[in-house]
Amino acid sequence: MGFLAYLLLGSLMGWAAAHYFPGFSPRNKGAKRAKRTKATYLWSMAFGILGTAFASYGGQAAGLFTAGQMLEWGSAIVGGFLFSLMYLLFKK
Are the CB atoms for 52 and 4 separated by under 8 Å? Predict the structure, then answer.
């Protein structure tokens, strides 16, 4: 997977994690609703990019897959989402 794919996929996973995280949901109308700032989205996207790169290179180093396989894409999606969620959880 190339650098541009890390940027696009990681940014998308970071945005999705920031948008659909339970405390940030637009459906949450209660007092516990957290404000979503631009910084929250940007940091979440940055951690998503790091997560996709880490999952891809880590899986290749462990010998789980080679570059370009579908498992690499799947692990990059999961890794980007999890890194972004960890940022949002520890941010609170």
Answer: no
| Average pLDDT over the chain, rounded to an integer | 84
Q: How many CB atoms lie within 10 A of CB 25?
A: 13
Q: How many CA atoms lie within 13 A of 3 on its CB side?
A: 0
**Spatial distance between the Cα atoms of 30 and 4, rounded to a whole number of angstroms:** 39
Question: Token pair of 19, please?
Answer: 């948008």
18 by Cβ neighbours in 10 Å (0-12 / 13-18 / 19+) ranks as: buried
Range from 30-34, 36-40, 60-64, 65-69 carrying the lowest mean pLDDT: 30-34
